[in-house]
Design goal:
single chain; 336 residues; alpha/beta; Rossmann fold; 6-stranded mixed β-sheet; 4-stranded parallel β-sheet; binds pyridoxal-5'-phosphate
C-alpha cells in the first residue's frame, strides 16, 4: 500500500512521468550519464511539479466540500496557473493573487506566459504589491476567503506560510515511490537526484519518501527562492512534518541527508543570471529540452557548475528532476 493512501487525493497528473537519457548533454559536460525525470510532462495545462502537489490540496478541498480554491504566488507562478487548471477541470472557482516578487520586469512578464494562461483558464486575479511578505500575502488570501463566504461560497485556501502543513509534499512522497519502481523496472543506475528547492514541497517530499522507503539515494536541492542558511532548516522541518502527516513522527533528515546548493540563486528569486542563461541554451541545443528561467534553469545550472567544478563527482550518474515551468519562458522573452 502506498505511504499516502490515507490522505484524500484527486488524480490530476499523468504518471509515471518518463525518465529519459540525455547523451548529448552528458557528453558536452563530460563524466557519467545524466538522465532527466520529465515532471514537465505531468499534464494539467502545460505540466509541472505542482500537478502532483495539487492532487492532495484538491483532495483536502473536496473532502471539506469547497467550491472555490484561493492561492497566492509570484506573477509568473506555475502553481497559480496549474491551480486554475485543476479548478476548471473539477468545476470549481479559482481566485489567485499575483505578488510582485520580482522587481523591474516588463510587459511580457506581466501579461504573457503563465499570466496569459491564468486568464484563459478563467481564474479571478487579485494583486498584492509586495513580494517578500508571506504573512501579509496569506492575510490577503484570508480576506478574499471571507468575501467568498459572505457570498455563500465555500473557499479552500492554499496558504503560503511555513506554519501550514505541507499537504502538497505528499505528491512527492508518491513520486519517490514512483522513482524507486522505475529504477527497479527499467534497470537504471542513479547516484544523485537534483531538484529545484523553493517552498521545499518537492525536495522535502522526495527526501521524506525515499527515507521512509529505506532508500539512501541522495537528493540535492538547488535554492531558487531563499538562501541556503534559510532553506536548510526549512527542509529539515518539512521532512519531520511530512513524517507526522504520514503517522511517522520519528522521521528526521540527518545533516548528511540535507544537501542544499545555494550557489546559483543570486541575484535572487526569479532573476536570471549568466549560468542559468547558459543552462537554458545548453539543454535546448543538446537535447531539445526546455528549462525555465526561475526554477529548472537554475537547478540545471547548479548541475553544470557541479560537474565542471568537481562538486559532483565525474562518475556520479545524475537524475535531473525537471519540475516544469516552461510557460514562464514567454514572460522572460526580453531577457532571453
Ligand atoms: C517549475 C517549478 N519548479 C520548481 C518549483 C519549486 O518547487 P517547490 O515549491 O515544491 O520547492 C516550482 C514552484 O513553484 C515550480 O513552479
Amino acid at each position: 500500500m502506498s505511504l499516502t493512501a490515507e490522505h484524500p487525493r484527486v488524480p490530476l497528473s499523468h504518471r509515471p512521468t518518463p525518465i529519459e537519457r540525455m547523451p548529448n548533454l552528458s557528453a558536452a559536460l563530460g563524466g557519467a550519464e545524466i538522465l532527466v525525470k520529465r515532471d514537465d510532462c505531468t499534464g494539467l495545462a502545460m505540466g509541472g511539479n505542482k500537478a502532483r502537489q495539487l492532487e492532495y490540496y484538491f483532495g483536502a478541498a473536496r473532502a471539506q466540500g469547497a467550491d472555490t480554491v484561493i492561492i497566492t504566488g509570484a506573477v509568473q507562478s506555475n502553481f497559480l496557473r496549474m491551480t486554475a487548471a485543476a479548478a476548471a477541470k473539477l468545476g470549481m472557482a479559482c481566485e489567485i493573487q499575483h505578488e510582485e516578487r520580482v522587481s523591474s520586469m516588463g510587459v511580457e512578464y506581466h501579461e504573457s506566459g503563465n499570466v496569459l494562461l491564468d486568464r484563459l483558464l478563467g481564474a479571478k486575479i487579485h494583486h498584492f504589491p509586495v513580494g517578500e511578505d508571506e504573512a501579509g500575502a496569506d492575510r490577503a488570501l484570508d480576506e478574499i476567503a471571507e468575501r467568498c463566504r459572505a457570498e455563500g461560497r465555500k473557499p479552500y485556501v492554499i496558504h503560503l506560510g511555513i506554519d501550514h502543513p505541507p499537504i502538497g509534499a505528499l505528491g512527492y512522497v508518491d513520486a519517490a515511490e514512483e522513482l524507486l519502481a522505475q529504477i527497479e523496472s527499467e534497470g537504471l543506475e542513479i547516484d544523485l537526484v537534483i531538484v529545484p528547492s523553493g517552498s521545499g514541497a518537492t525536495h522535502a517530499g522526495l527526501l521524506a519518501g525515499l527515507l521512509l522507503l529505506g532508500s539512501r539515494l541522495p537528493v540535492l536541492g538547488v535554492c531558487v527562492r531563499r538562501e541556503e542558511s534559510l532553506q536548510r532548516p526549512r527542509i529539515a522541518r518539512r521532512v519531520s512534518e511530512i513524517g507526522a502527516l504520514l503517522g511517522r513522527p520519528d522521521l528526521q533528515a540527518s545533516d548528511g541527508d540535507l544537501r542544499i546548493d545555494g550557489s546559483i540563486l543570486a541575484p535572487g528569486y526569479g532573476k536570471l543570471n549568466e549560468a542559468t542563461q547558459e543552462a537554458i541554451q545548453l539543454a535546448a541545443r543538446c537535447e531539445g529540452l526546455l528549462v525555465d528561467p526561475v526554477y529548472t534553469g537554475k537547478a540545471l545550472a547548479a548541475l553544470i557548475a557541479g560537474r565542471r567544478g568537481g562538486g559532483i563527482p565525474r562518475d556520479a550518474r545524475v537524475l535531473f528532476w525537471h519540475t516544469g515551468g516552461t510557460p514562464a519562458l514567454f514572460g522572460y522573452r526580453e531577457l532571453l
